[in-house]
Structure formats: structure tokens, C-alpha cells
Amino acid sequence: MESQCSSATGSIVKLSSFTILLVFLLSCFTFTSTEAYDALDPTGNITIKWDIMSWNPDGYIAVVTMFNFQQYRHIQAPGWTLGWTWAKKEVIWNMMGAQTTEQGDCSKFKGNIPHCCKKDPTVVDLLPGTPYNQQIANCCKGGVLNSWVQDPANAASSFQVSVGSAGTTNKTVRVPKNFTLKAPGPGYTCGPAKIVRPTKFVSADKRRVTQALMTWNVTCTYSQFLAQKTPTCCVSLSSFYNETIVNCPTCTCGCQNNSTEPGSCVDPKSHYLASAVSAPSKSSNTPLVQCTSHMCPIRVHWHVKLNYKEYWRVKVTITNFNYRMNYTQWNLVVQHPNLDNLTQVFSFQYKPLTPYAGLNDTAMLWGVKFYNDFLSTAGPLGNVQSELLFRKEKSTFTFEKGWAFPRRIYFNGDNCVMPPPDSYPWLPNSSPRLVGSLLYLAMTILASLIFLISSA
Question: Which residues constitute the signal peptide according to the record (predicted)?
Fold first, then answer.
């Protein structure tokens, strides 16, 4: 009986261990699959729409358009790179508004040579200034794709492609596979192409509607973890009621004197700065940052500046420590419970974001065009700043326990590292009654001295 019990106990232990291991593995897969989810922009994505506009003798002509439906995340220079794998033996005869990076082996063709014969072509946008006979609408922006909220007029990018060896009806055409989108590095994961209802187009005079012969969509979502393993920005804090300046946590984005990457930062006083900045890097996107304790390319500083009877005021400063990167069309997303009472923004553009109905605690800030929408590389001009004026909500407002500081900050869609909450500048440990009593005592003593002096 004892042996049976011990055997049963052993089986239960093994089963429990197996169950725990199974739950752990499932949780790992779960976290991996939801890594691209953004709580502040739950429906944000880049949608690639492939519209077949006409048939050719051996294929079709299509217009491919990328729509950036993300509220605050955009693609900046050097721009997007789009790739896929053909389902059959398709070739690209011609392109307008974009080009492939490689032609591939087209030796089997006589006479007319295709633009690209690769099984897995890679496409990039054309640059501004491209001749008009090579352009179509929404092309030729150097791959820059702005966010939907910040600049909806430039939140789409298009090109035209003439495909051969592809079939000439919607029953013989096969959708491409394995779509990839780089912006310009990794970060986006694209789902499979799905055939949808053909897109409809309204003429300029709105009196005629035409439609594509066949349409399929591809949805790509962003993951900061896939884009870069280390953070790209951090937040520092200060206030008028405390002399403490809370810097970004040490080694937030890396550490100095890293043996694996020597020379990863530059002392601004060093005479090697000019040569280091101009020297070619392994990647054009590899940051070369100013040597700091946090080693981040971007720092956002939140300073609680003034306290009025019915309002309070904050100064926000964004500093660029990267010597290789200018940030055009930058933006900042801030989460704070008092943003529903934001009264005035002095030199930034502002739009409230409401990811969930009835919750207005998130705001998007960006620069004023031709004034401070360009964040220059590290140096004297490498910062932008503004001030925010909040109206106090008496039921919730307080300076205690770090309430005046943001809960979360994003820069260009990347979540910035906040200091630990226990390091926030807190109110001095002095009672208002004690301060009032001391002030009254001081005034009483001063009045007595003035009386004695005047009597003498």
C-alpha cells in the first residue's frame, strides 16, 4: 500500500512539474505573440493594399499603397523597405514611384529585360525630385511615412508595378507570400495577404465610381522589442519644490567603457568628436551618442515649474544626444491623469488621444512646422522645449507622492524608461501648520523689534 501511495505521489509530482513547465511555455508564447500590442494605440497598424488595375497579356498592372494607421508612430529617413516572395514565377517588368534594390538573374529573357527577376524582390521608395514621368500620386518621399494624427496628408505611400508571368484573371493570379516591412530596421511583423472586396475609386468630380479588378490587404504591426533590444529614450524629472534632479537611470540604454563596443560614445569636449561623427558606421542607423550616465540617444525632461491658485505649470525639454540622427516630424506621447484639464500648450502642437472611451489621460505633442518640428543632432541646437499649463481639479490635484509627474512617455512611438517611483522629487517633510506658526512667530518678533526701535 505504501509503495502504491509513494508511486502515486511520484506521479502527481511529475504531473505537477509537467503542468508547470507547460504553463510556462504557453505563457512565453503568449507574451511573444502579444509583444506588438500597444495599449495607447490598440488598433494602430500599417496596411498594405494591393490593387490590380488592369490585365496585361501575361500579367497585370497594380498600385500598391501603404497606409500608416498608427496615431503617433511614423517611418523616418532613410525610409521604408518592402519585401515579399512571389507565389509562382512572376517577374516585375516595370515600376513607377519605386524601384527594387536588385535586378536578379534575367538571362533567360531575350529582347525586353524585366526590371526585376528575383523570387523575393526588395522595394524602396524613390527620392524627392524624381522626374515626373517616373512618379505616381503619393510616391517619391524617400520612404518617409508620417503618422495618421500628426500629418494625415503624408501618411500614405504608393507605387505602381507591372507584373508578368502572373496569370491574367482573378482566378489564376496568386497573392505573394512572406511580406516584410523594414522602417528602416526591424520591428514590423506582417501577416498573410488576404483577398478583400475590390477597392472603389471616386473621380475628381465625384460623378463616377470605378473599382480595382482584384484587391488584397496585408497588415503589419510594430513591436519595440523586435525593433531594438535596448531602450531608445529615457525620462528625467525635477520640480520647484525640491532641489533634487532625478536623472535617467544609470545604463538605461547601455553603459560606457563597454568592452564589446569600445568608442560607442563621444565626449563633447574631445577633439576626436569631428572625426568620430564623420567616420562611417556599420549601419547608418547605429547611434553615436554623447557620453552620459544613461547613454540614451533621447532624453525627455519633465520639470514641475510653477504653482498657481487654480493652475500649475510644467516645462518639457527633449534633448538629442545622438550625433548621427536628426529627428524630423518628431512627436511625444504623454500619459498623465490631469491631461483632461490641459489648458494651454505654448510652443508645441497638441491632440488628445483617447484609446479607450471615457478615458482622456493621454496627449500627443509635436513641433510647430518650420519652428521646432526639427530636432537637430547632439550639440547646442539639439533640443526643443515647451511649457504646459494645467487647470487644477480640486478633487484629485496634489503634489504629494509624485502625482505631478507623468505615468508614461513615448518618443516617436518608443516607450521611454522612467526613473523608479521611489526616487521622484517629493514634497519637503514640513507641516503647513508648523510653517504657518513659525511665520506668525517671526512676524510677531519683527513687529516687537520695530516697536522697541521706534519707542527709543
Answer: 1-36
CATH code of 414's domain: 2.60.40.290
Same domain, 268 and 410: yes
Helices marked H in 216-337: 224-227, 273-278
Instruction: Tally helices (H) and strands (E) across the chain.
Output: 4, 28
241/172 same-domain check? no
- The answer to whether residues 313 and 200 belong to one domain is no
pLDDT at 29: 37
Domain that holds residue 279: 230-423
Residues 6+ away with beta carbon under 8 Å from 378: 268, 289, 290, 320, 321, 322, 323
Q: Are 266 and 281 members of one domain? A: yes
Q: How many CB atoms lie within 10 A of CB 119?
A: 14
Q: What pLDDT tens digit does each residue of the chain (456 aa) get?
A: 444 444 444 443 343 444 444 333 333 433 333 346 788 888 899 999 999 999 999 999 999 999 999 999 999 888 999 999 999 999 999 999 999 999 999 999 988 999 999 999 999 999 999 999 999 999 999 999 999 999 999 999 999 999 999 989 989 999 999 999 999 888 999 999 999 999 999 999 999 999 999 999 999 999 888 888 889 999 999 999 999 899 999 999 988 875 555 567 888 877 556 655 666 555 556 788 999 999 999 999 999 999 999 999 999 999 999 998 899 889 999 999 999 999 999 999 999 987 676 678 899 999 998 899 999 999 888 999 999 999 998 888 999 989 999 999 999 999 999 999 889 988 886 544 334 434 444 555 665 566 556 555
* Separation between Cα atoms, residue 144 and residue 141, nearest integer Å: 6
Q: Please indicate, yes or no, whether residues 240 and 340 belong to a single structural domain of this protein.
A: yes
The H or E element containing residue 110 is none
DSSP code for 167 = -
* Same domain flag for 182 and 243: no
- Both 65 and 104 in one domain: the answer is yes
| DSSP states of 122-155 | EEEEPPTT--GGG--TT--STT-B--TTT-GGGS
The 3-state secondary structure of 364-430 reads EEEECCCCCCEECCCCCCCEEEEEEEEECCCCCCCCHHHCCCCCEEEECCEECECCCHHHCCCCCCC
- Number of domains the chain is built from: 2
